[in-house]
Amino acid sequence: MSVEDGGVPGLGRPSKARWTLMLLLSTAMYGAHAPLLALCHVDGRVPFRPSSAVLLTELTKLLLCTFSLLVGWQAWPWGGPPWRQAAPFALPALLYGANNNLVIYLQRYMDPSTYQVLSNLKIGRMALFYCLCLRRRLSARQGLALLLLMAAGACYAAGGLQDPGNTLPGSPPAAKAGPMPLHITPLGLLLLIVYCLISGLSSVYTELLMKRQRLPLALQNLFLYTFGVLLNLGLHAGGGPGPGLLEGFSGWAALVVLSQALNGLLTSAVMKHGSSFTRLFVVSCSLVVNAVLSAALLRLQLPAAFFLATLLIGLAVHLYYGSR
Question: Which SUPFAM superfamilies match (predicted)?
Fold first, then answer.
């Protein structure tokens, strides 16, 4: 795989301690995302436009990586930034923008922990894109590990599907009194499949792009999030009448925006110095954080299928990284 030299030497991987801390923080933020969105609900629905949250998240990421460059945390390339290398970031910005909006809509059709576990269905598609686009081969142990992650999602889906008629008309189960049951509607499952397809393609393409360009990570983020802000601004403006940009926002909503912005920056570091599968395992391991927060904040009831899925994910992590 060729490397485009942007004139910046020594773009090495972070130290082991720093790398571990980054992965732990990313795991915590992934796990907290769906419960925080559930806490934003008013009368069973998200009170703000999903496009508003995504636009503010992209804008926050853009401001943070710009600040990183301005204060000198990462150096500019010699001779100035090669702007011709910015154009390829338009595609992942479009894909991420679509998925970031979709993930908020998904919360209407499933509970946070069901979303967290079933999002592992993206693994099969990502493995295919990974082998085709990056021309990498997986060992038998690694392939088995990925199958276990997919099995965990399928196992959980079998116990989580329910008739949407069991909920209040027009409201997700989060609006009901009492503990929140595990649930997913058929429409939610269909949207989740689309989400997983886009997620796999965007992750592999972004990894390929970031590793081919020998540029500072903050500069690559600047390219990516500039397109992200422009695209999401267009989506927000073209979304028709609805709440204003900040209408319906609460402290929980602000925390969603900030945590997702920080997690986006951490994820880009994982893509640059790790791999798409490292990110996948971070998402899978965030199941523990998600379960703790969902049980504590939403009184979510966790049946045996949930813990079986968690066990399969733990075994998959051991197989995949134990083979190295």
Answer: Multidrug resistance efflux transporter EmrE
Nearest-angstrom CA–CA distance, 218 and 209: 14
C-alpha–C-alpha distance, residues 150 and 70, integer Å: 43
Distance CA 287, CA 112 (A): 10
pLDDT single digits (tens) 135-187: 777 788 888 888 887 777 667 655 554 444 443 333 344 444 455 566 778 88
Under DSSP, is residue 299 helix (H, G, I), strand (E, B) or coil? Answer: coil
DSSP string, 123-189: HHHHHHHHHHHS-----HHHHHHHHHHHHHHHHHHHHHB--GGGSPTTS-GGGSSSSPPP-B-HHHH
